Structure formats: structure tokens, C-alpha cells
Amino acid sequence: MSRHEKEVRATLRIVKFDPMSLIRTGFLISVSIAVTMLTATLVMYVVLAGMGVFESIDSVLGDLTGSSAGLTETFTLPVVFFSSVVIGIFEIITTTSLFALFGFVYNATVPATSGLAVTLAEDQVQIESE
Predict the structure, then answer these.
(1) Sign of the CA dihedral 28, 30, 34, 40?
(2) 37 neighbors 83 (Cβ within 8 angstroms)
(3) What's the rounded Cα separation, in Å, for the pair 39 and 45?
């Protein structure tokens, strides 16, 4: 660091998380994950069905087992959509609960650990006037 540069530092200590803020944040994050998962599942299903992958798997399974495999009758768009929605709801509940649990555990352990220390630094450069 040269003689014309200064470094400003601030040390912060996180001693408490508001559980309701964590629950709201966890809920919003989990909803965005669920929507992304639902969209990706539907896009993948439409692409795979359009390419005829399920019919090919039906044909291979039918040749191996000697009977007609009903993969195309089992994995229809409503079944895939409903399954994805159920998994998304489970994911929302689980993720939100884990955020809340993290908040309560962190708040309970702060007296023993004295919290989390975060140091923020910023370099300030002074320009010499001519």
C-alpha cells in the first residue's frame, strides 16, 4: 500500500438472526427453486416425448420382457406435472423448515460462540493534485 492509499475497515458481528426473516427468505428461495424445477421438468418431458424417447424405451422393455411395457401410458403429462407439483410442495416445506431450524440453532449457540464476525474493507485512493 503506497502512502496515498487508505484502507477503511469495519468489523461486524452477527449475534442474532430474526427467525421470521429467515422463514420468509427461505420460503421465497424455496418457491423459486420449486418453480424452476417444475418448469425444467415440463420442458424435459415435452422434449423427450417429442423425440420419441418413451416409445423407444417401451420397445426395448417389451423386447426384453416379452410383454408390452406401458411406459407411455404411465408417464403422461398430467402424471408428470402432478408428481412435480407434489415434490415441489415437499421441497418448499422442507427448505423453509430448515431455514427456520438454522435460525433457532444459530441464535441458541451465539452465547457460546459469540457470533459470526465479518470484516468489510474498502480501499480509498487519494489522487494528488498538481
Answers:
(1) positive
(2) no
(3) 10
The predicted pLDDT at position 129 comes to 60
Q: How far apart are CA 55 and CA 33, in angstroms?
A: 30
SS3 category, 30: helix
- Rounded CA separation 15/109 (Å): 10
pTM for the whole structure: 0.73
- Residue 124 sits at φ, ψ, to 5 deg, of -115, 125
Are the C-beta atoms of residues 107 and 16 closer than 8 Å to each other?
Answer: yes
Alpha-carbon dihedral 101, 22, 97, 110, rounded to 10 degrees:
0
Give the model's pLDDT for residue 10.
Answer: 84
Q: What are the average pLDDT values for consecutive 10-residue runs of the chain, which has 130 residues?
A: 67 87 95 97 94 87 76 85 96 96 92 86 66
Do 25 and 99 meet the contact criterion of CB atoms below 8 Å apart? yes
Identity at 100, one-letter amino acid code: A
